[in-house]
Specification:
single chain, 65 residues, alpha+beta, N-terminal domain of TfIIb, five-stranded antiparallel β-sheet, 2 helices, 5 strands
Length: 65
């Protein structure tokens, strides 16, 4: 993903910075605990498409028990 684009993009909810997760092809908002997918090199900045990181951690914790 273009680094210039990453500098301009912000979380659509809180307008905070996003961090690029190269391994999972996502943009992470640490404040809202959401991961926005990057599909075919294009960030999908829609709340309903974002993965809730709180739910992911709960699922992992439950499956490890």
């Amino acid at each position: 993903m273009d680094s210039n684009l990453l500098e301009v993009l912000v979380c659509p909810l809180c307008k905070g910075p996003l961090h690029h997760d190269h391994a999972n092809h996502e943009l992470i908002c640490k404040a809202d605990r959401l991961a926005y997918p990057i599909r075919d090199g294009i960030p999908v900045m829609l709340e309903n498409e974002a993965r809730d990181l709180n739910e992911s951690n709960t699922t992992q914790s439950t499956s490890n028990s």
